[in-house]
Amino acid sequence: MAPPRAPRRGGGEGGAWRAPTRAWRLRPPPRWRAGQEGTEYYLVKWKGWPESSNTWEPQKNLKCPLLLQNFLSDKNEYLSRVKEGKALKVRNHVKALKPAVADYIVRKAKQRIALQRWKEELNRKKNHRGMILVENTVDLEGPPLDFYYINEYKPAPGINVINGITTGCECSDCPAEKCCPKEAGFILAYNKKKKLKIQPGLPIYECNSFCRCGPDCPNRIVQKGTQYSLCIFRTNNGRGWGVKTLQKIKTNSFVMEYVGEVITSEEAERRGQLYDNQGNTYLFDLDYDSDEFTVDAARYGNVSHFVNHSCDPNLQVFNVFIDNLDLRLPRIALFSTRTIKAGEELTFDYQMKGSIDLTSDSADGLSPSRKRIRTVCKCGAVCCRGYLN
């Protein structure tokens, strides 16, 4: 065939057929229909031109009937030699699942649906940034049956939590001398990068709803809630559920708040006997100033309900005061003690010992209610004390 006026690109190559090649200038064409119904295109190799100049041409453009006839004859002969494949006989194949396996598959599917619904419920109820994911690749445990997600303290009947704040700071620059922490007799808890700068045992006084400063004030951290995406996951060493971060967390960053039902210490003693037998630890005494109240996160709580204990934790507890200055009812905030990698489990020391400044007047800070039955610790840390209490 004569060289083309200029290489042209015709139809596409999808669904095409290619026969064994010979030294023809008309290449064995993939057949492809485009344009008008029934139009056939042929891939042409032009003499003296590289493969990159091949073009798709309709039959009416091909002025080589003998070459085309030979091509079609060879193509038909080739296709006639192609036989249908026969199915292989499979020996010893499983014709039916064993009842135990079938039951597991059904239960796993139901669990997957239940966990998905629970995840959606948690994300509807949370009021903070970041997603909450749920993951269980260990067993068939589903969502807790008697747990209700809340974002702040839930006072038990008979307990009145009154926000006694009626005034706030007049600062335009909150590290000023007369800001909320200074008025309470303490230093500002955060640096310019909004990271914690005080020692454990000291309280945090944040600006409140009556303060003149805006939402970008460097002294408004805990009140903005969790800023990270977290995952509630099933541990593989018998510690039940745990929580891991899906994002890197820098040192001295606020991670989450511990919330639950606020009850009296007397009620905490009664419930504690029940929890002892179950091996659970959800009671925390609000003993910053007195031991009148306790937070119980067994039935009501947030993501922190699932955070496990470690004798070598990466979170530290601090008492926080914002819209309520009642020293009997501090808010409980968890801050990172070091850089935490994405995918790492979050933990805190249920005894809150070690890094707390024991010389501080408020060294007791927040501590779990005392348990009467010793619970074996499974944290696996090198410095593990052996027991949770």
TrEMBL record:
PANTHER family: HISTONE-LYSINE N-METHYLTRANSFERASE SUV39H, HISTONE-LYSINE N-METHYLTRANSFERASE SUV39H2. CDD domains: SET_SUV39H2. The gene is SUV39H2. One of its GO terms (cellular component) is chromosome, centromeric region. S-adenosyl-L-methionine binds at R239, G240, W241, N308, H309, Y350, K378. Its EC number is 2.1.1.355. InterPro entries: Chromo-like_dom_sf, Chromo/chromo_shadow_dom, Chromo_domain, Chromodomain_CS, H3-K9_MeTrfase_SUV39H1/2-like, H3K9_Histone-Lys_N-MTase, Post-SET_dom, Pre-SET_dom. The keyword Nuclease does not apply. Keywords: Cell cycle, Centromere, Chromatin regulator, Chromosome, Differentiation, Metal-binding, Methyltransferase, Nucleus, Repressor, S-adenosyl-L-methionine, Transcription, Transcription regulation, Transferase, Zinc. Residues 228-351 form the SET domain. Residues 373-389 form the Post-SET domain. It catalyses: L-lysyl(9)-[histone H3] + 3 S-adenosyl-L-methionine = N(6),N(6),N(6)-trimethyl-L-lysyl(9)-[histone H3] + 3 S-adenosyl-L-homocysteine + 3 H(+). Zn(2+) 3 binds at C174, C207, C213, C217. The keyword Cell cycle applies. The lineage of its organism: Eukaryota, Metazoa, Chordata, Craniata, Vertebrata. Residues 21-83 form the Chromo domain. It is an enzyme of class 2 (transferase). One of its GO terms (biological process) is methylation. This is Histone-lysine N-methyltransferase. Zn(2+) 4 binds at C311, C377, C379, C384. Gene3D superfamilies: 2.40.50.40, SET domain (2.170.270.10). SUPFAM superfamilies: Chromo domain-like, SET domain.
